[in-house]
Amino acid sequence: MEHYYQPEIECASREQIIALQNERLVKQVRHVYDNVEYYRKKMEEKGVTPDDIKSIDDLHKLPFLTKDDLRDAYPYGLVAVPLSDCVRIQSTSGTTGRRVVAFYTQHDIDLWDECCARAIMAVGGTKDDVVHVCYGYGLFTGGPGLNGGSHKVGSLTLPMSSGNTDRQIQFMTDLGSTILCCTPSYAAYLGESINERGLKDQIKLKAGIFGAEAWTEEMRRDIEKSLGIKAYDIYGLTEISGPGVSFECSEQTGMHINEDHFIAEIIDPNTGEVLPEGEKGELVFTSITKEAFPLLRYRTRDICVLTRKKCSCGRTHVKMSKPMGRSDDMLIVKGVNVFPSQIETVLLNKGYAANYQIMVDRVNNSDTLEVQVEMTPEMFSDSVTEVAAKEKELVNALKAMLGIYAKVKLVAPKTITRSEGKAVRIIDNRHLY
Ligand SMILES: [Zn+2]
Q1: pTM beyond 0.85, yes or no
Q2: CA quadruple 276, 327, 257, 76: dihedral positive or negative?
Q3: Ligand 1: distance of its center to the CA of 6 in Å?
Q4: Which of 30, 115, 117, 283 is placed for a possible disulfide with 149 were both Cys, Cβ 3.0 to 4.6 Å?
Q5: Domains contained in the chain, number
Q6: Are residues 263 and 369 both part of a single domain?
């Protein structure tokens, strides 16, 4: 049976959702214009006033906000209420450039918790569940978000935070955790550890809510198998609130965006033009209920597709696909969009680890693509002929995925440089920009 936290809004008609968005957008633009000097200047530069925004059809008239704006306005430049009305901050890890600091009023926190409560109920959560949260707590939004959602649902919440795998597994078995919330890579690790210890029959998990990092369908199947659960995706970003901006339902074919709080657009990352439904482009969010840190037309840099196709779960909010990469990562090779995540999927499918590097170059006015992949230790002892056969197998699989030829070079294990933060996956020697 499908559970909803707020069925009247989650299953509202399209007309009701649009009416609500229109009303909230008009109000929000006025709030931001009146209280955020930084954005008011941007609107003035574009020649737009709040009077020009009468409905969501006028949304495209508003200027975008980017990560650079957040950096310029750091720390208080985008806060729209007196600091005395703010009750909390959350922050990003700051691995790429300066960290983002987002502000919340109590009302903002309540709405964020409700979004996470919807996500928990969409995976079957009820007040009888034991929700095991091993996202990090503290500045990171993962722990506090799902923790708040679990409280709203009325589930028993285990605020485990990350790390200490032995303790995680002990609480899981002793207290009968039923819903696991963490990053997909930690879920995979927990699955492995539980199976190694022979404890699989002692855990009661039925579902998991996994987000905060990119993962593939293959990884979903692996986690579902090793933990014996259904694995659901959740999406969010600190700039917009945190996890729960969108979440997966029982259909597991994309994430419903909480459209009563966030308006989603897909734009061409190069021109900024709004693209029609079903086209792939950069996801842009406008938060229409946030008080303290209300970003309008914030460019997420995530590339995905939106669909309003009827969903079997009964929810009517638009669905977004799993992000297919970052707009900064998107490569255009021979006129075709190539994402590192597509290449990674092929490699994982064929039994390789995600240690690879993509080299792009231009030779005689024609793009070349080469993927260097580390062999597994077992493969390393293979003969030259066997290695060549494996390279050919990858060439064919990549061609099927990308539609273009990529040269493949298998290299010795541990020869591709590891990095502390984000791995350097792409080396583009074309110098096109
Ligand atoms: Zn659905």
Answers
A1: no
A2: negative
A3: 14
A4: 117
A5: 2
A6: no
- Tell me, in angstroms, the distance from the centre of ligand 1 to residue 64's CA: 29
State the distance from the centre of ligand 1 to the C-alpha of 16, rounded, in angstroms. 18
Q: Which two tokens stand for residue 214?
A: 């990119």
For the stretch 222-274, pLDDT in tens is: 999 999 999 999 999 999 999 999 999 999 999 999 999 999 999 998 899 99
Q: Domain end: 276, 301, 326, which one?
A: 326
* Cα 78 to middle of ligand 1, angstroms: 33
Cα–Cα dist 27/292, whole Å: 14
Please indicate, yes or no, whether residues 222 and 338 belong to a single structural domain of this protein. no
Q: Which domain holds residue 355?
A: 331-428
- Measured in Å, residue 422 CA sits from the centre of ligand 1 at 32
433 falls within a domain: no
